[in-house]
Design a protein that fits this description.
By secondary structure, the chain is an all-beta fold. It contains no helices and eleven strands.
Amino acid sequence: QVQLVESGGGLVQPGGSLRLSCAASGTIFSINVMGWYRQTPGKQRELVATITSGVSPYYADSVKGRATISRVNAKNTVYLQMNSLKPEDTAVYYCNIYAHNGDRWNDYWGQGTQVTVSS
């Protein structure tokens, strides 16, 4: 059993910043990719950023230059720093990892954290 717990969401004014955190726990032998996705009502979930050890992070064009993804492998934790936030960044943000649980590789998702950018 693998659990992801996200934190750091909330209400932020346009131009502000926030940092999302996601800690993975449970039976984890190895984590390959860690990433963040977001979703707004009526739209498909979209990729925001991913990070793989030894590989340059990937960012969606919509957040490039404003977002920084990082990970602490010893803590099975991934972070997303978002700056210069815009109202269109408003969404539920989901953490995702591709991890081996000792039996097979699987995708795991967090429960989501709401980010609202509004004045």
